Amino acid sequence: MRHRLKSEKFSRSEGQVRGLKKSLLRAILIEESIKTTHEKAKGLTIWVAKLITRAKVDNLHNRRLAYSELDSHTLVKRLFEEIAPRFKDIPGGYTRMFDIGWRKGDCAKLSLIELTKLAEKPKPIAAKAGKKGEDKKEAKGEAKPAAVKKESKKIGDGVKKLLGKKEKKEKA
Question: How far is the C-alpha of 104 from the C-alpha of 13, rounded, in Å?
Fold first, then answer.
């Protein structure tokens, strides 16, 4: 009996579904945003959610399971070291989908699916905390770092960049 076993077949054999799953997972982890059909995007959200949830716990067993899905050591490393830490504090919602229209050839509904980028929390400013020693240092000018000079940009620089013209460096 198939109680509570939900999987999409996508009108393909088992091996083809496995290949489709692998290629879509690899593409979303490399690019972080891909364009595909709506049905494939819905299936991909489930697969990505399972993979990232597993990658939150970094141990050898989970790395081997991720490798069995991705077949790439570099992607497994990126998943565990770059992507999963972004989602460590949230229980789900790793992807979002946008409908982008219909494909011209067969009129299939297309969607853009991407990994959500979580905004980092701003670091608290020490002066707001009201620590005693810092207020005195700021008054004396000790706590402030040396000012960094920013290069002034000219109006012509942007135009040259757009037109592709490079400045010739003069030899002195």
Answer: 26
